[in-house]
């Protein structure tokens, strides 16, 4: 009887220990506007897998894709206030909060995706990451979002003159509004989720984005003319609420940073694959893709730089990016 009692006591203790372990797990919420399977969503999921593995299950990440928690502007405020812990967002909506993000959002600041990788993976990227902390955020990683180009329902765009009078949805960013105006078109900032219906009903003529977004949001169904002006190669940023990050032990902080860094390689691999697949999908569906006379677009950007690159910090950042080989 004593043996049975001891055995039962041991089982009870083991059960209590298991309950304690389960209760100790911290679940972190992360938001993304894109659908499940999108490269940024999968990049954050991979980050979550690494965190769960490397902390032996003490932390896990729940990814809320498809704007389940709101559009980017809403979720930026949620992560800054600590309602959610993590967020994957385009760089441009941070332009009014973190001034250093203005530089990667500038039109034609990057010469290629490889140039962008070199810049954002190096000391310039570290400087931009550090600038997020006064805003209550820790920038964990920069993800790929390819090059962005204009697409519309009216006609192919081959020169700057073809832009005149067209109405485009742009990211909620003053730089994107001014860029579009400098090209002679009209900018309408609006949430990403409203683009399809707005083109369909004629509220706008088109938008600007990368191939995976053009594909997965089905924008090619209502705006079949995709013109490769490639005005920005805008990285996206994966951020964490700073108060939540500061609660981690130094060891766990290092784990989180390394897991984020490791997720970048995975996301880039997925991005390259998805870009090719998306281009093939939209072409098969009837999208008309054309190149543009890009130098005219580049030349038109001088007033945008003059307006947004004002102080010495931003001027030096621009010069450093342009000097990076």
Supply the key terms:
single chain; 325 residues; alpha/beta; D-Maltodextrin-Binding Protein, domain 2; 2 domains; six-stranded mixed sheet; five-stranded mixed sheet; 48% helix; disordered N terminus
Outline the secondary-structure elements.
Layout: H1 2-24, E1 26-31, H2 39-54, E2 59-64, H3 72-81, E3 86-90, H4 102-105, H5 113-120, H6 123-130, E4 137-143, E5 148-152, E6 167-170, H7 174-182, E7 186-189, H8 195-200, E8 206-209, H9 211-216, E9 225-232, E10 236-241, H10 242-246, H11 250-284, E11 288-291, H12 294-299, H13 302-308, H14 312-323
Parallel strand pairs: 1-2, 1-3, 6-7, 6-8, 9-11
Antiparallel strand pairs: 3-10, 4-10, 5-8, 5-9
Helix pairs in contact: 2-11
Quick description:
The chain is of the alpha/beta class and 325 residues long.
Task: Explain the overall architecture.
- With 325 residues, the chain is an alpha/beta fold.
- The chain has 2 domains: 25-144 and 234-277, D-Maltodextrin-Binding Protein, domain 2 (3-Layer(aba) Sandwich), CATH 3.40.190.170; 148-233 and 279-323, D-Maltodextrin-Binding Protein, domain 2 (3-Layer(aba) Sandwich).
- 48% of the residues lie in helices and 18% in strands.
- It contains 14 helices and 11 strands.
- The protein has helices at residues 2-24, 39-54, 72-81, 102-105, 113-120, 123-130, 174-182, 195-200, 211-216, 242-246, 250-284, 294-299, 302-308, 312-323; strands at 26-31, 59-64, 86-90, 137-143, 148-152, 167-170, 186-189, 206-209, 225-232, 236-241, 288-291.
- The chain has a 6-stranded mixed sheet with strand order 7-6-8-5-9-11. A 5-stranded mixed sheet has the order 2-1-3-10-4, with helices on both faces.
- Helix 2 (39-54) runs antiparallel to helix 11 (250-284).
- The termini are far apart.
- Residues 1-23 have low confidence and may be disordered.
